[in-house]
Amino acid sequence: MKTLIIYASKYGCVADCATDLKSKLSGDVTLVDVKKMDKDLDLDNFETIIIGGSVYIGNIAKELKSFCRGNLELLCRKKLGLFLCCGQVDQANEFFENNFQLRLLKHAQITECFGGEARPEKMNLVDSSLLKAVTKGDFSSFEILDKNIEKFAEAFN
Questions:
Q1: Total domain count, the chain
Q2: Does residue 157 have a pLDDT over 70?
Q3: Which residues touch 116 (CB under 8 Å, ≥6 apart)?
Q4: Best CA proximity match to 88, nearest among 108, 65, 114
Q5: By residue range, what is the domain housing residue 151?
Q6: Element (H, E) at 2
Q7: 82-128 tens-digit pLDDT
Q8: What is the Cα 22 distance to its own chain's centre?
Q9: How do beta strands 110-113 and 48-54 pair?
């Protein structure tokens, strides 16, 4: 089975989670950053497509939203999974509903939140300041949820 994991990662958390997920999946798995995607990539070559992104101020990357909108029909013919990385795990369902078309959500075999990491040292000044203001500098609630990555992989293996 050929699987494509397409993701958008601003500060590396999603890329790290996508790489971890890839290591847990069986078969031929290809990782692609949507921001660096080759326009000649033939999505028809993949039986399974997994889409992942990070949430910033309630939204995923515009490139990922555009990819989903532009490929909705094709994505709904594939085995599909969606994942998010975010610090507000309790709001994950809301983030899924606000960022993915309902048809895509209903078609997905699994949707899962992988948690998130605060990486202020990698952030630009605006994002870092916003994160520190919202969390009051306490990043202890941010963590990657390995059990959710395992659960996601099991759904596809």
A1: 1
A2: yes
A3: 13, 54, 55, 85, 86, 87, 89, 142, 143, 144
A4: 114
A5: 2-156
A6: strand 2-8
A7: 999 998 889 999 999 999 999 999 999 999 999 987 665 666 766 66
A8: 13
A9: unpaired
